[in-house]
Write a structure and sequence with these properties.
Helices cover about 30% and strands about 25% of the residues. It is of the alpha+beta class and about 375 residues long. It has two domains: about 5-70 and about 150-220 and about 305-365, 3-Layer(bba) Sandwich (FAD/NAD(P)-binding domain); about 90-140 and about 220-305, D-Amino Acid Oxidase, subunit A, domain 2 (D-Amino Acid Oxidase, Chain A, domain 2), CATH 3.30.9.10. An eight-stranded mixed sheet has the order 5-6-4-15-16-17-14-18, with helices on both faces. Strands 8-2-1-12-20-19 form a six-stranded mixed sheet, covered by helices on one side.
């Protein structure tokens, strides 16, 4: 079986890469070892901003801004195509940490980003349920979110309409290289030929590359989250305090997260994390105790040494490309990452600089 391009990995980065390639006229096949979007993408909260934008690497700035501008149109297009609303919305975010204000205000002024200092007297007017308020808080009114399970469902249907062949429960066991050029990928049952193969397996990307005798530095980082069922409108804005965030959905669900745990490929939830998250939520929003805690889950983020993803051609192997290692920013950066890699694959002018996302000295060739 032959395609123009094979994408290995069915998270949001892989799905949007497949969609971008298909929109540019390529025949694409997408492989996912499980169910599309069921790993880190499904587990993510969907905040379309770094938690503390003033701490974010300047390397990611253009990708962040491009994706943020892209998301309203992307969500609208997917809704029109599929009838599934990804629920993109401008929630705004309240940062309940006064010690972040100087850095935040300096960053906002430099980057022309709206930001307000909200006094403790003003804060209950924005969010009546907050108690134990600091002397002041930061309000970023332009922060947006998307509901990731609905985005995944819409993308799946969009890919099918575009003719992308989706192969779920299909683990790629080998990428076949002939004369330093991609030739095919193999599952346990079949061989699929393509001249272009994109590795977008997130935290599992290394496992496939190791079979080629190559390795990049990506480690799984567990993040645990919980979800409450409140009433619609109980919480209006995203809240952030000491790294813990609350995300309100249109139907009243409130997500809270998340942990950052270096525990290998362990996706189990823990009693300790549940207690830490519920305690942090109750400290910000005591009335949440009136509503049931519905779910507790975990996902594995793909972390790189410097937090910068790999969006590039793999050096020395023609036709092999990477779109992986997005750590906590995969949902936010997925549209820009997909566009950048598609530009690289089609050898056309890129919409932003690509040099910072290349493989550098952390490649290690393994003994065969």
């Amino acid at each position: 079986m032959t395609s123009d391009c094979i994408v290995v990995g069915g998270g949001l980065v892989g799905m949007l890469t497949a969609r971008e390639l298909a929109l540019n006229g390529l025949q694409v096949r997408l492989f996912e070892r499980g169910i599309l979007g069921s790993e880190c993408s499904w587990a993510g909260g969907g905040i379309l901003s770094p938690l503390y934008p003033w701490h974010e690497s300047c390397v990611l700035r253009d990708l962040i801004r491009w994706s943020q501008k892209c998301y309203p149109d992307l969500a609208g297009e997917l809704y029109a195509e599929t009838g599934i609303d990804p629920e993109w919305q401008q929630s705004g975010m309240l940062v309940l940490e006064s010690n972040e204000q100087d850095k935040a205000m300096e960053w906002a002024k430099k980057n022309h980003v709206p930001i307000e200092i909200i006094t403790s007297d003003q804060l209950p007017r924005l969010e009546p349920g907050i108690t134990g308020c600091p002397t002041s808080a930061l309000f970023l009114p332009e922060i947006t979110q998307v509901r990731t399970p609905r985005l995944i469902a819409a993308l799946r249907l969009s890919l099918q309409k575009l003719g992308v062949v989706i192969s779920e429960h299909s683990e790629i066991t080998e990428v076949e290289i002939v004369r330093q050029k991609v030739h095919a990928v193999k599952t346990l049952q079949q061989t699929f030929h393509a001249e272009v193969v994109v590795i977008a397996c997130g935290a599992w990307s290394n496992q496939l590359l190791e079979r080629l005798g190559q390795q990049i530095i990506i480690r799984p980082v567990r993040g645990q989250m919980i979800c409450y069922q409140a009433i619609p409108g109980y919480l209006q804005h995203i809240l952030l305090n000491n790294g813990i965030y609350l995300i309100p959905r249109k139907d009243g669900h409130i997500l809270a997260g998340s942990t950052v745990e270096d525990v290998g490929y362990d996706k189990d939830t823990t009693v300790e994390a549940r207690y830490m998250l519920t305690s942090a939520v109750q400290a910000m929003l005591p009335g949440i105790n009136d509503y049931p805690l519905l779910h507790h889950w975990a996902g594995l983020r793909p972390g790189t040494p410097d937090g910068i993803p790999y969006i590039c051609a793999y050096p020395g192997l023609e036709g092999l490309y990477l779109n992986t290692g997005h750590y906590r920013s995969g949902i936010m950066l997925a549209p820009a990452s997909a566009r950048l890699l598609t530009d690289i694959i089609l050898t056309r002018q890129t919409v932003f600089s690509w040099q910072d996302f290349q493989l550098q000295a952390d490649i290690r060739t393994l003994a065969r």
